[in-house]
Structures are given as C-alpha cells and as structure tokens.
Records
---
Amino acid sequence: MTAQLTVVDHPLVQHKLTLMRDKDRSTKGFRQLLHEVSHLLAYEVTRDLPMTTRTIETPLTTMQAPVLEGKKLALISILRAGNGLLDGVLDLIPSARVGFVGLYRDEQTLEPVQYYFKVPSGLDARRAIVVDPMLATGNSAAAAISLLKDEGATDISFLCLLAAPEGIARLAQAHPDVRVVTAAVDERLNEIGYILPGLGDAGDRMFGTK
Ligand code: URA
C-alpha cells in the first residue's frame, strides 16, 4: 500500500459515511451528506498547505498573522462522480482553479476510456487535488493522474470518500508520489469492480440515475 495514505477517522465523517452507505438513503440525503463530508475531507487534504505570515492591525495592536503562502491550487474532478466532492471542496477554497477529466469505465475490461479533458494552465506551479468519491480499481485515478503529469503537475493529492485496498495498491504502484486522503478503506472489490461493502454506484446515488 501507499506510504502516503490518510484515513480521516473523525467521528462526524464516519457517522455521515454510514448514513450514506444505507441503501435506503434518498438521493437528496445522499447528496447533502456528500457535500457535508467533502468539507471535512477538504480540511484534511489541505492540512499541510504552506503558510507564511502577514503584518495586520487588529483593533488593539499590530501582529504577524498566519496566512496561506499562496501556492495556487487546482481541483481536478473526475467526471461525473467527482463533482459531488468538488462543490464542497470549492466552498473552502473558492479561489481554486478547476479542471475536469472525463473517464468512463469499460464494463468488460474495467479500464478507463477518456472522453473529456480540460484543466487549468500552469499545472507545474500548482498543487493539484484530484477528487473522485470512489477509489475502486484505481485505473481511472491512475490514468487521470498520468494525464495531469503530462500537463506538468508534480504536486498531486487524491481525495476520495471510499477506497478499496486494490485501488490504493494500484495508485501506489503507478504514482507513489501521490498522497491519498479517504474517509475509509473497505474490504475489497467484487467481481465487477464495485467496492464491498461500499455504497453502490456513487454517481447513480448522487444524481438519482439507475
Ligand atoms: N464506482 C462506484 O461508484 N462505486 C464502486 O463501488 C466502485 C466504483
């Protein structure tokens, strides 16, 4: 597995994730919970952002106050389920640039097929946070990250809600430099590449398709 794995075991995250796993959770409820959890996950994935200080005047005195150093961020959503995490992360980092990678999974081979790619320029100078709720086989994540590296990205984190051990291993093998932040690592993949126990198809559950 990766040396750079962070499991966000905060009680609020774990409670909300359990609510989301429930097959009877409504589309509206699922989407709302994902939005809430994405705030908490964003908090963790940005924990090591570089800081500096700025001189400010409070009503009482002058102080050197901590501020973000200002390394530019790019959020990269893997369509379509990534958008369910994207909005909440953007709430916390509203000035981040946003890119989209469209990949669908060939149901026979489970390999990713690209249909869309649009990312901010200057990725070499940005920290990229790739968002996709489910790290299952890891094939889509590895492919998306390769595309970002082709565009010059060198500082990349992968943010998800649920990860399978297989996906973590695949990502660690393809991109050992990438940090993975997730709310939980589940048991395994089933024979058609779904995470067990999992929560089903994240895209279907958040958009009400099926
Ligand atoms: N994608 C999903 O949405 N769910 C899984 O369990 C695996 C991949």
---
Amino acid sequence: MVSITTLDEFIIRNQYEFPYSTGELSRLLRDIGFAAKIVHREVNKAGLVAEILGKTGQINIQGEEVRKLDSYANERFLTALEHGGECAGVASEENEDFIAFSDENSRNSKYVIAIDPLDGSSNIDVNVSVGTIFSIYRRTSKMFSPCLKEDFLQPGKAQTAAGYIIYGSSTMLVYTTGHGVNGFTLDPSIGEFCLSHPSIKIPSHGNIFSVNYYNYSKFSDRVKAYLDHCRDGENSSSLSLRYVGSMVADIHRNLLRGGIFLYPKTSDSPNGKLRLLYECNPMAFIVEQAGGASSSGTERTLDIQPTELHQRAPIYIGSYNMVSKFLNFLKDTKEPEEE
Ligand code: AHM
Ligand code: MG
C-alpha cells in the first residue's frame, strides 16, 4: 500500500525544525489548512450556486469591487484564525486596518498573519484558478496584550512562514517555514492535504515569462528593453509568454516549470499593483526557499521595509538566472529605473 503523508502529520513531524517550538506555529498552519478546505468547497461549487458568484456592491480599501467570494474567503479565514486562538491578529487585503483579536489565547500568541484571502478573484466567475496567500510573522510587540500595527510592518526577511493555496484543477497548499518548500494536494475523497510535491526546487532557468503585456506602453524603457529582448532577442524562440492574471497560478506554474513573473511599476502606478505584505513577501519567501529570486528592481523584495499595511511594490520573481538577467538589463540600459 502507498504510504500517504497528510499535512497535519508532516507539520507535526517537522516541528523539530524549531528548537524551542511550543507547537503554536504547527497549530496555526493547521488552522489555515482547515479554512482552506472550506474555501475550496465554496470555490468548487461556484458555478452551481448562483448566489456566490458576482460582486457584493462594496468597494474595498484598494478601490476594487469586492466579489462575494472575496468576502466569504475573508470571513472564513478570519473566523478560523480567531477561533484557533494561535495568532494575535490579522492584516487582510479586504480590511482597511489590521484586526487585533481580543480573546486571551490570541493575545497570548506570538504570531500575526498578513493574508490575501482570495487572490485573482476577478477570475472566479469564469472558472480560472484563484488562490489564498499568507505570511506569518513573530510579533515584535509584547505578548499578553493586543497586537500592534508595527507587528505587521516587518520586512519580508523576518517572516517565520509563508504559503499559498491554489484552487485550480486540484487544490494545493504550498508553504515554507524557512526550511525548503513543500506542496500538498487536497484529496477531496478523504478531505486531507497530502504531501505530493516534497522539497520543491524552481529550475534555475525556464522558458516562461509572465507579464500583463497590455501595460507595455506604460513600462519604463528598461523594462520594455527586457521584454523586447524576450520577444525578439537571442533565444527568444525558446521563450513563451504565459499570463493567467492570478498571481498564485502564474507563480505556481513558474515555480514548477521555471520562469519569471513581472509586475512592474507603470506610468500611472508608480509602485506597481501588487501588495508587499500579503502578495509580494510571501511569494518571495517561497521562491527564494525553492532556490529562486525576487526583487523590486532596486532591492531584494524581502529587504524592503514596509511603512503601510497595503503598500504596493513592483516585483520581478522566479528562476534565479532569469531574475539575474532581468536585473542586469535594468543596470545596463542608460535610463535610470528610479526617476
Ligand atoms: P487581487 O488581489 O485584487 O485579485 O489582484 C491581484 C491580482 C494578481 O493575482 C494578479 O497577478 C494581478 O492582480 C493581475 O493584475 P492585472 O489584471 O493588472 O494584470
Ligand atoms: Mg490579491
């Protein structure tokens, strides 16, 4: 009989990675896995149950229309994290301010979470993959009291753990605690995430570049030069453009196959679109742990000191050699990237 390792078993077995572990992080990861199964259930019946498709009519802090499933996923994760009592608070893409949980267990927790509960949700109504992205930090404020904003405003290199769930042709949870990256596929027949992709390594070079080409005219000359090189330069015939428009799906594919994902600044969005705390940083931690690289074009993503919860940052992330080549393009062309 084939032996199966479930997410819960794996987490417990690897608790030794943390010498003074109290099991709190393990339980927190299990709470996230539990909420992910509930969101998976709803995402999977989105085509059948008309009331869960479409928009709520509200606009979130990002100025974007909130979809019903955005709101549902946000509630599910917040509820699971609050009831689990293993984290002191959450900063979510869907909430203007962070939420400090008030019950005693939560206040006593040493962790806080930044989360995008349903990333790429504009794709949901047309049955395209979406995801959840999360980042876990040790709080810097003192325990036994409500967490503070400063707990969330730590550079990505301070992350304790990060992960994503992709609701795709199958549902997968991929995470790192700083000791490599492991992927688990949900087996719906037993309701468990099972280890399917141990020790994921991103190929150092791939043949995929992922960018919203529609924005080309708004990119800096240096980014345009790189994209022109991808399209017409030496070896361009071996490259393919693949862009889903769901960051989780685009990065998951590139993580397994090799490639680079770019979301540059544009003339009308000087910091790009993607959010540092709950999109760029967790993905950068995972990709670096898999052997890849991530940069804002001027510094390593994980070194950026955040100043706001919903701060945006340009991101160039993926296979190590492809990101290095891109960064060389930024250096080599004449016009400075930061002007
Ligand atoms: P969201 O968090 O509102 O869903 O937006 C984030 C998404 C990412 O998943 C994706 O990479 C990007 O937006 C796509 O943006 P664009 O449509 O500008 O290419
Ligand atoms: Mg998002």
